[in-house]
């Protein structure tokens, strides 16, 4: 969904939940999906107590940061470059 965020549907709740993200002017969207999935995996593994919608919101935020730079892997932000509250 790119700049439109993400949609969450679960077995328990089949009503789509739209999770918005910050609107930005992208430099390069290549790798944004990878940034999203990698970030979501991080939150699932290391912050499993967060509600799933919050994990998705944070993963969208990180993917949004990645589109601000050219390239794929080199556009992915390092943990130290992210706002501390995003990783709590």
Structural overview:
- The structure is a single chain.
- The protein has 88 residues and is mainly α.
- Helix content is 34%, strand content 7%.
- It has a two-stranded antiparallel sheet.
- The radius of gyration is 13 Å and the shape is globular.
- The model has no long low-confidence stretch (mean pLDDT 90).
Distance between the termini: 25 Å
Count of distinct strands: 2
**Sequence of strands across the biggest β-sheet:** 1-2
Shape: globular
- List the uncertain runs: none
Quick structural summary:
This protein has helices at residues 32-46, 52-66, and strands spanning 6-8, 17-19. It is mainly alpha-helical and 88 residues long.
Topology at a glance:
Elements: E1 6-8, E2 17-19, H1 32-46, H2 52-66
Antiparallel strand pairs: 1-2
Keywords:
mainly alpha; 88 residues
């Amino acid at each position: 969904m790119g700049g439109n965020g993400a949609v969450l549907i679960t077995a328990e709740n089949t009503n789509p939940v739209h999770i918005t993200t910050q609107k930005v002017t992208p430099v390069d969207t290549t790798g944004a999906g990878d940034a999203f999935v990698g970030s979501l995996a991080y939150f699932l593994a290391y912050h499993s107590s967060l509600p799933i919608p919050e994990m998705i919101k944070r993963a969208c935020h990180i993917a949004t940061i990645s589109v601000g730079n050219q390239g794929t892997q080199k556009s992915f932000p390092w943990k130290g470059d992210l706002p501390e509250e995003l990783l709590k």
